[in-house]
Amino acid sequence: MLEIFKYKQLLAFLVKKELKIKYRNTALGYFWSLLEPLGLMIIYTIVFSIILRFGIENYSLFLLSGLIPWMFVNHSVMRGTKSLTSNSSLIKKVYFPRQLFPLTIVSTNLVNLAISLLLVAAYSFYLGVGVGFKGLMALPIAIVLQFLFVLAVVLLLASINVYFRDVEFISSLGIRGWMYLSPILYPIAKIPEEYLSLYMINPMATIISLYHYVFYGGEFIGMNYLLYTAGFTIILLVISWKVFDKLSRRMGEVI
Amino acid sequence: MNAIEVKNVNKLFKKPYDKTLKGRLISMMRKEKINEQYQALDDVTFSVEKGEGYAIIGKNGAGKSTLFKVISGVIYPDKGSVELNGTIMPLIELSAGLSRDLSGIENIKLNCAIYGLKKDKIEEILPKIVEFAELEDYIDVPIKFYSSGMKARLGFSIAVHIETDIILVDEVLAVGDKDFKEKCYNKMIELKKEGKTIVIVSHSLRPLKKICDRALVLKRGKVQAIGEINEMISMYEKM
């Protein structure tokens, strides 16, 4: 696992390259990383606060503070799953730790997330909600947890996708269901009491609610759920890494 | 100490006839073999001395490229081991691996980073690479607009300028014009004089005589013979 640190330079370079290429040949360039969630926010706001009324105060802010982190998950999983198969020509020719490909995708999205979160913070202050000191302390925890958790998921999906391309289709369907099972469009408070513990199995529930805590002034989810999510993330990451290593051995020939 | 030590390497490729679940179920019901097996490498053992020029020759399908990939670490052998003393640089075709949207200069940097070079080292060898490849005028152009000869020149130039102990060359020299080929051979002879180990996988024999000292003849995954280069080439030609 430590081998990867030797390739810091390469990772930095690959991330830069990804950022550069992602928006090449678009007229608006980097702005797309902001315009995309903004567009979605407008659509969801119209649907859920005008047509289907949830009756949540500052619904657009609530939505934005969950949607921006969700975009990170969405893009990381969608692009990350294909990260090995789309680099097959390189994998077939030269050896370096293949974890770098999924890691590059997730790191690139992390840069986008950081930029977009500034926008959320600005909007929060504009509406008079603001980000407090406690929120500022919680933000790095949310980001680190989310990064590691998503990395674990992407490592697993990307490596299996080399052997069974079915994963690409499953993950694009799964990500949609996963979004509706995370507190993005509605607050956790809407979940019936008897299903709550089942609902909270999803680590993204805790992570998104942390973002609500930071930017929306939502309630703190509680230490129990936070510890559960941290534990879940670490265990999943270790398993994913091991699986990836194992599957990596034959990648050069089957890809 | 030997630069490369390959011991009893075996590689069996399995290729399922039909990978879908339906296909597999049908084969299982008919009690057919699910996998097609192919012994790409069969008990290959050899060693390359430090500072030696070594050729691996064989016909198409003899297992040359598989052996190349096993040495460079892309493929794991089923059995046996590969030991390397020193850093290794496989010369890869630039056309395949790298990003088509990046310019020549960005591709050089990316390639150097793949081999773990530090930033200041990259800056140092960058002008040398560009000069050797004779691409000064096109270096900021995305490589998707390069001709195959230009890509090959850039690829070769990168490979010989990154300082490694062992250089692996797989028939990429087939492209590039006569003058550039000549330049490449001279560069390889020069590198050999500097004490680097060069392994060439090829079926074009003429240039090998100048660079290589010894050769290994591969036939259907098995080592046919190992010995002095001229002897091996005449033997291969009779095969």
From TrEMBL, chain A:
Any one GO BP annotation for this protein: lipopolysaccharide transport
Keyword presence, DNA damage: no
Compartments it resides in: Cell inner membrane; Cell membrane
Superkingdom of source: Bacteria
The keyword RNA-binding belongs to this UniProt entry's keyword annotation: no
Assigned keywords, A-Z: Cell inner membrane, Cell membrane, Membrane, Transmembrane, Transmembrane helix, Transport
Family: Belongs to the ABC-2 integral membrane protein family.
Protein name per UniProt: Transport permease protein
Species per Swiss-Prot/TrEMBL record: Alkalihalophilus sp. As8PL
From TrEMBL, chain B:
Family annotation (SMART domains): AAA
ABC transporter domain mapped to chain residues: 23-239
GO cellular component, one term: membrane
GO molecular function, one term: ATP binding
Family annotation (InterPro entries): AAA+_ATPase, ABC_transporter-like_ATP-bd, ABC_transporter-like_CS, ABC_transpr_TagH-like, Bact_Polysacc_Export_ATP-bd, P-loop_NTPase
Keyword vocabulary terms for this entry: ATP-binding, Nucleotide-binding, Translocase, Transport
Pfam families linked to this entry: ABC_tran
PANTHER family given in the database record: TEICHOIC ACIDS EXPORT ATP-BINDING PROTEIN TAGH (PTHR46743:SF2)
Sequence similarity: Belongs to the ABC transporter superfamily.
Protein name per UniProt: ABC transporter ATP-binding protein
Source species of the chain: Alkalihalophilus sp. As8PL
